[in-house]
């Protein structure tokens, strides 16, 4: 296959993404505006007829004091990953990025390698000998994903280190998804476990109302998000990040980002952001107050977001990252336990891969990152 690669305009890039059933929200042109501290570029692959057949958003992060960059394609590029000649796609990309001053390239192939349905996960949790998701027999394995990994290794790409929790990569390797294609909403609701169904009913009885918010409601979101950060011990992003995200994504497509609140007795007690690209819908960030948890606002909000995703014609509702630990004493266990109640499935992606264009600088960056 003869492919040529060149920089494309944002308009070309967006038109290509819009022609696909779905793509990662981190591969739309507007994501570059969200990540304003990185320099960005849209790349396009063209076939011999001059037809655009692939696209990639590259984010460049400069090294301190020298004009050399880490080139990062989060959950991308958007190419034919199952091509038997993956080298034809990636070699011109590496050559171009080297020309742009990149010393290292990091990418995240959007390729699922294994899936586990909720019954398989539940039996894994119940088995005292099983500690990790990967110890459970997968419900579905994608053999072509192993071929992708083999091709990448032969080309010299290196797989990101696994940290055990599935968060060794910049983006989560393990995610939880609720498939919506060829299912009725009734089927989706029936797929919830008893606890989820009970909690949805409880929220309804208590008078929890789920509403959509706008840009002007982001400070209310931020308040709940900072409470959550303190409770769960993570560093929160500033309000300006979410304001930038809202403006950038919704300027590109007025339905790209949504904000939801679960309101009880006039008070917002839980909130979430939702992202939409074609048929793929993500629950992106979530937050909740420390009180009124007994009225189950989070379950009510997820059910509303799922119904809205379904109404949009989405093929998948993606609850994003989970750890792969099935050990109840693990701090990430609650995450998988909450999400498995939706009756969806865990998916393992190929993870992130690095290509050191300058081995010395790449190693220096590795050492710096490990010390952070």
From TrEMBL:
UniProt superkingdom: Bacteria
Record-linked SUPFAM superfamilies: Acyl-CoA N-acyltransferases (Nat)
Annotated keywords: Acyltransferase, Cell shape, Cell wall biogenesis/degradation, Peptidoglycan synthesis, Transferase
A matching Pfam family: FemAB
Keyword check for Transferase: yes
PANTHER family found in the cross-reference section: LIPID II:GLYCINE GLYCYLTRANSFERASE
Protein name as annotated: Peptidoglycan bridge formation glycyltransferase FemX
């Amino acid at each position: 296959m003869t492919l040529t690669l060149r920089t494309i305009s944002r308009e070309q890039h967006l038109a290509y993404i819009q022609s696909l059933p779905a793509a990662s929200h981190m591969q739309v042109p507007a994501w570059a505006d969200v990540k304003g501290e990185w320099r960005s570029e849209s790349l396009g692959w063209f076939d011999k007829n001059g037809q655009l057949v692939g696209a990639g958003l590259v984010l460049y992060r400069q090294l301190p004091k020298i004009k050399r960059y880490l080139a990062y394609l989060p959950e991308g590029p958007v190419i034919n990953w199952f091509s038997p000649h993956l080298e034809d796609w990636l070699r011109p990309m590496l050559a171009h990025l080297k020309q742009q001053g990149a010393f290292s390239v990091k990418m995240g192939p959007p390729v699922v390698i294994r899936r586990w349905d909720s019954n398989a996960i539940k039996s894994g949790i119940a088995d005292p000998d099983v500690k990790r998701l990967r110890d459970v027999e997968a419900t579905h394995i994608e053999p072509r994903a192993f071929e992708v990994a083999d091709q990448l290794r032969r080309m010299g790409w290196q797989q990101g280190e696994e940290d055990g929790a599935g968060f060794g990569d910049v983006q989560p390797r393990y995610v939880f998804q609720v498939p919506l294609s060829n299912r009725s909403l009734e089927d989706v609701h029936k797929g919830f476990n008893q606890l989820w169904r009970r909690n949805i009913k409880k929220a309804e009885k208590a008078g929890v109302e789920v509403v959509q918010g706008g840009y002007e409601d982001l400070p209310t979101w931020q308040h709940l998000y900072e409470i959550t950060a303190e409770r769960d011990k993570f560093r929160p992003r500033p309000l300006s990040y979410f304001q930038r995200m809202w403006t950038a994504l919704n300027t590109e497509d007025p339905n790209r980002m949504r904000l939801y609140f679960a309101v009880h007795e006039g008070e917002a007690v839980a909130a979430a952001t939702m992202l939409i690209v074609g048929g793929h819908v993500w629950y992106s960030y979530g937050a909740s107050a420390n009180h009124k948890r007994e009225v189950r606002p989070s379950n009510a909000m997820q059910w509303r977001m799922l119904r809205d995703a379904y109404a949009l014609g989405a093929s998948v509702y993606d609850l994003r990252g989970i750890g792969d630990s099935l050990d109840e004493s693990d701090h990430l266990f609650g995450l998988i336990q909450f999400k498995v109640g939706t009756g969806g499935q865990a998916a393992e992606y190929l993870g992130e891969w690095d290509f050191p264009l300058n081995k010395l600088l790449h190693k220096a960056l590795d050492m710096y990152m490990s010390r952070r």
